[in-house]
Amino acid sequence: MMIKIYPLQFAPILKERIWGGEKLKTVLNKPISSKITGESWELSTVEGDVSVVANGELKGKSLTEIIDESPNEILGTAVHARFGKQFPLLFKYLDAREDLSIQVHPNDELAKKRHNSFGKTEMWYIMQADEDARIIVGFKEKSNSNEYLENLKNKTLLSILDDVKVKEGDVFFLETGTVHAIGAGLVVAEIQQTSDITYRIYDFDRVDAQGNTRELHVDLALEAINYDRVDTYRAYSKETNQSNEIVDCPYFTTNFIPLDGIDAVNKKGDSFTVYMCIDGEFELEYNEVTSKYKKGDTILIPAAMNNYVLNGKASILEIYIS
Could you confirm whether 134 is annotated as catalytic? Predict the structure, then answer.
């Protein structure tokens, strides 16, 4: 039996983190109850953290259930052919009250060999930035494992890493192997491969409430790191009421839609589409039914939804697999 097709929203999966704060509530209206909420997982099929539908006829069903029942209709014909019934991406909002740990993600080959998992290519869209907020992305100059280990041992790792000041609207694309950290004072929309594999290499010697440090993965990271300089910043155009490409990689395509009025959308059914509303409000009309969305909402458009209309004044990230 084919399931009913309509724009899907999911209950956020909220994560407390040592570096988290309260901006997911104050900036994005997430229902957090803790002062150290660092992440809202918006769309996930990571084991133990599978998203559950929060609206309409399919409310209460998990993302994996509805994909299992109707893979072509939800994922799209091309995505289903390539990934089977796996949902290949993970969508999050993050609030960094403090610096995140310095970390790296393995590529597909290494992740498959070690963890039977996808690698973790990802991108960040800066939704809100305090004054002087920054990120760490890659090395200042080409490095090597010996120089890296020497600086790690001497607690001078930050001196060889690239430190970039950021502002709202900046986008960074991080291929696997890029050493990175989100800095304090940032709210970020994150799009990545479905993977929860992170090698933490330096955590600023932090301890939790019980006085424990978090586990580091220095040895695992050695083989995963790209020691070359990397260019992670992505410039993009902002033509109104249309899709402006920001990132196009084998794992996902992300566009920026500055909506001010109407955008009629026509899809082919080969991939699902995800909208992350990063500012403003908009409506989506499909089959004579209108749904309303606001900043902080994430919407999964099943691949079988081919024609619909966006209307409003909003900034939207549009993500699909091409």
Answer: no
